[in-house]
Write a sequence for this structure.
């Protein structure tokens, strides 16, 4: 069933207007007048609605609450080109809760189009039947990660670590706390600088993902898959 997203303030109205892009998408799906869809506040609640193009009529009596199973937060360098958009699409499907773009010493890309990203997130969330939308934050500097130290239990992806945080350790951790309280830091393709690596090693726990050197998006999706797999199999 198609899911559309609206801010809570707009969603208070019984009749909600559709955008031209949404109408085109509905027609492409061959949905017809009076068919049922869902409209969500993006925070875990959705309502059944009836298509009355160019609007939908919201039925507040039919309220659905998502059984939240959000994945970890990611603090990551931004992949170049359309690789960033593809990564976000798949990360949303894997249940990412928050994405914090980080500017490292060796980062090549430092910004992105927030409007474009929001569209991708909504499309991916609708496809994955998520009522909650992940939060994509504005880019932060590496040193600003410490502003979130009390909010998350941090790990960092390290292809060279010898002190590995193994799968059994992750399983025990997830038994103790929600995935939303865990965050993993992923560096740029040039790797962490010597200073960054020293700080991370002293402060956080390393995760070893692969014997191969991974691209940013591959590392991010690998991390989300690992935690998601553990969560659903506990």
């Amino acid at each position: 069933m198609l899911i559309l997203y609206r801010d809570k303030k707009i969603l208070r109205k019984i009749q909600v207007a559709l955008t031209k892009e949404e109408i085109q998408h509905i027609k492409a799906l061959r949905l017809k007048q009076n068919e049922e869809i869902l409209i969500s506040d993006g925070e875990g609640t959705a309502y059944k609605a009836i298509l009355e193009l160019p609007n939908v009529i919201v039925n507040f009596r039919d309220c659905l609450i998502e059984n939240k199973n959000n994945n970890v937060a990611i603090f990551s360098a931004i992949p170049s080109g359309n690789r960033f958009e593809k990564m976000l699409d798949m990360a949303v499907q894997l249940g990412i809760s928050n994405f914090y773009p980080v500017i490292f010493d060796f980062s090549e890309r430092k910004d992105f189009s927030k409007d474009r990203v929001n569209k991708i997130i909504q499309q991916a969330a609708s496809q994955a039947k998520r009522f909650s939308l992940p939060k994509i934050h504005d880019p932060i500097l590496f040193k600003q990660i410490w502003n979130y130290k009390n909010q998350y239990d941090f790990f960092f992806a390290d292809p060279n670590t010898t002190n590995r945080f193994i799968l059994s350790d992750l399983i025990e951790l997830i038994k103790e706390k929600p995935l939303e309280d865990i965050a993993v830091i992923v560096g740029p393709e040039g790797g962490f600088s010597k200073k960054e690596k020293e700080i991370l090693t002293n402060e956080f726990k390393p995760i070893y993902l692969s014997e191969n050197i991974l691209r940013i998006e591959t590392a991010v999706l690998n991390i989300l898959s690992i935690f998601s797999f553990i969560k659903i199999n506990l």
